[in-house]
Write a structure and sequence with these properties.
about 50% helix, mainly alpha
């Protein structure tokens, strides 16, 4: 099956989603939990595989905004 180019609307939505994600990360990263403890020393875990857990309210905000941008929610 040949690849299908996304529509201009989908491309625009994905660009808007990426921009919102960048802005959201900038506002919420400092509040996220990051616990690399238990990794062998020396570890470059934070350079290659970064798990952070944002506060639940921030995560809810992200999903609400993402759904709106992608056209899944009207409000």
């Amino acid at each position: 099956m040949a690849p299908v180019k996304p529509s201009a609307q989908r491309i625009a939505r994905l660009r808007a989603l990426a921009a919102m994600h960048d802005e959201w990360v900038e506002r919420h990263l400092a509040d996220a939990d990051f616990a690399p403890e238990g990794r062998p020393t020396p570890s470059d875990y934070n350079l290659h595989f970064l798990d952070v857990n944002p506060p639940s309210a921030a995560e809810d905000e992200f999903h609400r905004r993402a759904r709106r941008i992608m056209g899944l929610d009207a409000s």
